Known about the structure:
Shape: globular
Distance between the termini: 26 Å
CATH architecture of the largest domain: 4-Layer Sandwich
Amino acid sequence: xxxxxxxxxxxxxxxxxxxxxxxxxxxxxxxxxxxxxxxxxxxxxxxxxxxxxxxxxxxxxxxxxxxxxxxxxxxxxxxxxxxxxxxxxxxxxxxxxxxxxxxxxxxxxxxxxxxxxxxxxxxxxxxxxxxxxxxxxxxxxxxxxxxxxxxxxxxxxxxxxxxxxxxxxxxxxxxxxxxxxxxxxxxxxxxxxxxxxxxxxxxxxxxxxxxxxxxxxxxxxxxxxxxxxxxxxxxxxxxxxxxxxxxxxxxxxxxxxxxxxxxxxxxxxxxxxxxxxxxxxxxxxxxxxxxxxxxxxxxxxxxxxxxxxxxxxxxxxxxxxxxxxxxxxxxxxxxxxxxxxxxxxxxxxxxxxxxxxxxxxxxxxxxxxxxxxxxxxxxxxxxxxxxxxxxxxxxxxxxxxxxxxxxxxxxxxxxxxxxxxxxxxxxxxxxxxxxxxxxxxxxxxxxxxxxxxxxxxxxxxxxxxxxxxxxxxxxxxxxxxxxxxxxxxxxxxxxxxxxxxxxxxxxxxxxxxxxxxxxxxxxxxxxxxxxxxxxxxxxxxxxxxxxxxxxxxxxxxxxxxxxxxxxxxxxxxxxxxxxxxxxxxxxxxxxxx
Length: 593
């Protein structure tokens, strides 16, 4: 795991300037810092790198890593779980390795050997920049579901890149806010890739390769999508044993770091299944959980039950006192783009606590996307009623809510699904009238059946841009690497190529319940789903004056009429608490720029 920043330019960037921007990279307390400069005749290559050592802890595995002839160089953020298998093939071809078992070196030689097609062979989470000086090519690539970030920009005869958006904006002095991204954020709670919050700075999309050919005349950019769920679509017979075997393998290959690690344990089906798999594989298990204490969101009793069942070394920490107004800056500083999901707070807190004990953790993120566990999927499939009811949305007052109650009954499945993620009513309330920014995020259904179409939307937007963003920024801010077995591409490809009799809207995640049925009673398996959240409504209402002062009197939030915000504070609903939080996060983010 690492953070990096760099540039191809006619002018050499000073080490002081790189180091200044490098300090913004989200990877606190790195094991090493390294800066490199390369004279490429008509261009200079400059890069700074922070390393968090998880695999092959020796200095030989430091980055940037170059070949002995200095013709190739790589900057790599992430982990390649099948690197040893790839290395064995490369050894047979005569490649000589300097490190003992660095996945960075395996990736470097694989790219030399296979070129751009090497990405298809990778199983892991990654973003990387590969420099081929002989052919004057720079390759940028990102993993299939967007676990690791990668940003780029081209301006003033330079091409620059970074794993951190704010660092890149500082390096290139591009800090003009992109208006449409603010509207996207207000509607969805996140800017929409490939755009970012800054003009002219973009994100490499998940499953995408960016090829940059450079010369004295400039840069030629070519984009290639190397992973597309459409190509796996099929309806083969789903086999539970086959699925569980793939799942266990996914857990197994992520449970081999060179540092002590823990498994996040929420007490839910996803994390419990991971712990069971580790137990069955014979691993010694360290589990870690946090709880709010004395609230309706406290599930620590279930964590204790799982720990006892599988004899784990369990650490449980109460974080209720850590949630306060004075602590908000530290909890939000991990964000390099505005992000409104309040679960970033408990995710930050658990990452901070676990960093006191471990450098790596395994999580259950992605289980709901894989198996259709979200309520929005279930309701979107079956909720259609008379279109006249949906049309009432147009008359619903914006200050009362999002209007999901009406749109979720629309006859169009895309409208129903989008209603759970979008808040156009908030933009109406804020006086934003320009509808060119309000197009639906989702395209018409892609597959022959509605269920897999919704699943594809989950992988197009929610998983990479909401879930993976949150996990990466919170964990890396605290120098913790998180590995997520449920987002393994082999599992996802299996789901999209097989029938989905495992899905039952009245009985979620049957395949995991059956997997756990010999270990737990029905009360544990079939209890109501509980997200990793805190009581945001109570938190906002208890600190009403603070949030009102920060939002209504702000001069930082552009393009909105702040005089129209009073109704959010007068009608103290859960939705309005979410909106107040969304505006507060945006204002705080803009104040830090």
